[in-house]
Amino acid sequence: MVDSGDRDVRVDTTPRGALARAADLPRGHPVLTRMVTAVIAGLLLFASFPPRALWFLAPVGIAVLILTVRGNGRLRGGFGYGFLAGLAFFLPLLPWTGIYVGPVPWIALSTALSVYVGLFGLLVRLVGRLPGWPLWVASMWSLTEWGRSSFPFGGFPWGRLAFGQADGWYLSYARFGGAPLVSFAVALTGAGLAAAAVWGPGFTRSTTGASPRPNRPRSAPRRLTSWNGIVAAAMLVAIVPLTGVILRTALPGPEDGNRPITVAAIQGSVPRLGLDFNAQRRAVLDNHVHRTEELARAVAAGQAPQPDVVIWPENSSDIDPLRNADAYAEITQAARDIKAPILVGAVLVNDDRTTSNSVIVWTADGGPGERHDKKIIQPFGEYLPYRSFFRHFSEYADRAGYFVPGTGDGVVHAQPASGGAPVAIGVATCYEVAFDRAFEDAVRAGAQILTVPSNNATFGDSEMTYQQLAMSRIRAVEHGRAVIVSVTTGVSAMITADGTIAQQTEQFVPAALVDRLPLRTDKTIASRIGPAPERILCILAAAVAVTAVIRRRATPANPVESPDAAGTLPVE
After folding, report:
1. Are 251 and 296 in contact, with CB atoms under 8 Å apart?
2. Which of 362, 339, 352 lies closest to 285, judged by CA?
3. What is the rounded CA–CA span in Å between residue 108 and residue 380?
């Protein structure tokens, strides 16, 4: 039976486990079966992401995808099945991108991201028969994940395997190689699961055009080779996640660090959700002022500790407080009432009428001080590339922002209310937290504690806020810093340096979180080496892919299949 780009292959019907059956596809409808398993692979990846705590499904999804695309057929077959898996992954993961603007942006973004999963399928088909292929396959995932996190328009890292692992055994890898190493560890485990299925005992198949052959006893050397492969795959599957569990003992405790400070996160909520949430900008600002004043009264009554620093979310003042005297006075009064500096998320209008998404350190005495202008701005949201072109397709084109990226290292300094040296606070505003470089730059510049001010009102009641919260947990472990997440509508949270959520709010209700968190000055291995692990993995993957292309060109068009490294005949 001919697969699209695959050769006529007959497979024995010996019972096997679920993964082995995914590898040994039925003879009747191979194309349809591969399509179904590709969709299953994508859905397993989606199910591994928050708010579900099913992180362990990610390596299973990778394994099913590898078994679906691995083979000797045409590369376009691997791309097609990978692309289908990508759609099954991203379409249910990203519906929040189209909640208020219709399905076109959601479908377009999901389709663009699925191209990279298709490239992964193509590369698996290319390198999936090389000696040591599980390692090379895992590096191919790293390469394609880097690609979609970088291109086009700066990339879109949402959906990296690492961001589904905040509750899992792989979390501690972030401390040693950041999110890229976590993703690689998950992919490597999945490749090991696939290898275990391929190298399973009794797994044989016929060559092209040959008649089916039963499982017949093998010679001792071949049987030994097969079992060596099984043991190697089993060790790979077990060692990678268990090493992550062991490494967790190296994570800092919630109170480990230098001097502690008391931090408050304000969640003022908004009058209504959607793109027009800020039509009542005064109400949004008033909500955050009022909730801060309530906390100030609780502090005065001895019902809450005095905060050293207060964090407001992104867009807590969409009225430019540097141009509007009323907003200026209101924020200043709130800082006086709480007796602490406030990090205010504000939209500032520049002299050229563009806008900046900024976080300003605001004090009771001096007013506005240092600020962080968001450096990584969201295409098709905060700005629209090729606006004149896209306005032909959607009326929302002219509603996209005119924001410009800022510069700087992502650090602002605030003087704690309790005294002492100013605190260096690393800021990654909303979308920025998905990008490795945001907090890498801040920690290198001396950030002692991290914050993620965000506004999720434009994404409604969706899973987006939980996905973003998981990213903040990964960043806490990656850099060994406590992270304060302050969101207009929730979920706001206090996250300790080991990725634990110490406190969190409910969605869509005004709230204030207050916690005592340690400052830290030492750097994790991930903070020190930055993007090096990802670059090494990508260079390795590129070198292996080139080697596989050369080997493929040197191979006859219809070679006779030969046993793979385990001594068993490989799967298509």
Report:
1. no
2. 362
3. 11
Nearest to 122 by CA among 94, 152, 82: 82
Tell me the H-state helices in 50-148. 57-69, 75-93, 103-127, 133-148
Q: What is the pLDDT of residue 203?
A: 46
CA distance 563 to 504: 54
Q: Considering only CA atoms, which of 318, 319, 259, 331 is closest in space to residue 292?
A: 331
Mean pLDDT confidence for 46-50: 98
Contact 544, 127 (CB under 8 A): yes
Residue 501 pLDDT exceeds 60: yes
Residue 433 DSSP symbol: G
Q: How confident is the model at residue 562 (pLDDT cuts 50, 70, 90)?
A: very low
- Active-site annotation holder among 314, 440, 478, 572: 314
Question: DSSP string covering 264-308, please?
Answer: EEEE---SS-STTGGGGHHHHHHHHHHHHHHHHHHHHTTSSPPPS
Active site residue 538: no
Tokens standing for residue 167: 């509750």
CB atoms within 10 A of CB 25: 25
Measuring CA to CA, how many Å separate 246 from each of 231, 241, 475, 522? Answer: 21, 9, 19, 21
Other beta carbons within 10 angstroms of residue 404's beta carbon come to 16
Are 67 and 190 in contact, with CB atoms under 8 Å apart?
Answer: no
**Distance of alpha carbon 261 from alpha carbon 258, whole angstroms:** 10
And the tokens for 480?
Answer: 């060994």
Taking alpha carbons only, the member of 77, 83, 148 closest to residue 118 is 83
Catalytic hit among 145, 382, 430, 440: 430
The token duo for 123 is: 């590369």
Catalytic annotation, pick one of 145, 330, 374, 538 = 374
Q: pLDDT tens-digit profile of 382-396?
A: 888 877 777 767 666
Distance between CA atoms of residues 440 and 424, nearest Å:
14
Identify the pLDDT of residue 353: 85
Q: Is the peptide bond before 51 cis (omega within 30 degrees of 0)?
A: yes
pLDDT at 279: 53
Rounded to whole angstroms, the Cα distance separating 437 from 440 reads: 5
Amino acid in position 453:
P
* Residues whose CB falls within 8 Å of the CB of residue 364, separated by 6 or more in sequence, listed in order: 332, 335, 336, 339, 341
With contact defined as beta carbons under 8 Å apart, do 422 and 414 qualify?
yes
Asked if residue 453 lies in contact with residue 345, where contact means CB atoms within 8 angstroms, the answer is yes
The per-residue DSSP string of 202-258 comes to: T--BPPTTPPP----PPPHHHHHHHHHHHHHHHHHHHHHHHHHHHHGGGSPPTT-SS
Q: Show contacts of 110-114: CB within 8 Å, 24+ apart.
A: 110/86, 111/87, 112/156, 113/86, 113/148, 113/156, 113/159, 114/83, 114/84, 114/85, 114/86, 114/87, 114/89, 114/90
| E runs forming strands in 350-448 | 355-363, 367-373, 411-414, 423-427
Please say if 395 is a catalytic residue: no
Alpha-carbon torsion (442, 434, 399, 461), positive or negative: negative
